[in-house]
Amino acid sequence: xxxxxxTPRVSGASSSRKLLHTxxxxxxxxxxxxxxxxxxxxxxxxTSAYRYVGLLREVGLLDSAPGxxxxxxxxxxxxGLARACEAAQPPLAEVALPVMTRLRDEIGETVLVARxxxxxxxxxxxxxxxxxxxxxxxxxxxxDLHAGSLSRVLLSAVPRAERRRYVEGVRPGLPPExxxxxxxxxxxxxxxxxWTQSFEEIDEGIxxxxxxxxxxxxxxxxxGTAAPVFRTDDARRDxxxxxxxxxxxxxxxALG
Length: 256
Known about the structure:
The chain is an alpha+beta fold and about 260 residues long. It has helices at about 15-25, 35-40, 45-60, 75-90, 90-105, 150-155, 160-170, 175-180, 185-195, 235-255, and strands at about 35, 60-65, 70-75, 110-115, 120-125, 140-145, 195-200, 205-215, 220-230. About 30% of the residues are buried. Pfam families: HTH_IclR, IclR_C.
């Protein structure tokens, strides 16, 4: 790739968006790209893709992948952005814990709060049921984004193109009824509603529900519960769903 000191100028809002989209193509699932692949992914002319890659190299965000001449990766400079993101995160566990404890006492079931990180949902905090049958989720534990109500609420908030790539990656081996829950229409409906429920998606005999914790237009986390089906008839499920949704709104208000 040419390394002229006279890097072609990129101007205008449209070009700025394309430059940012170029950087956002680099993910955990796809950490390296060629210019040709970036051009194809973003619908750009190859010359434009070269220009954007050149600018990102100029500011130190991209560099050649080791052992390659035409493949690029993000540099360690993005670690500073990741640390800034972490430092700016609201104190979710601290704010949520009193609400979760009260909710656990009301419904008698384990209550979880989770955030998305990359292609996983991570348990941020939990308050366990005192029933003999309990669900074990440790803080920091990673969960699949496509299984269970808590994870699917978080998946629904992922940008559609990224969401589709994730679903395509997990599609093999999933039964049709599970795939139906991961369609654009189903996930969009979950995002619009702000909550969903699950039946035996992770463990046999377990029902769960979860609601989105929103700040502005974004979903920053989700709160949910899970319980054996034998403890939750239709009326009880409706009651728990209403309490979970109210708890999500209460936590969002405290964070905001």
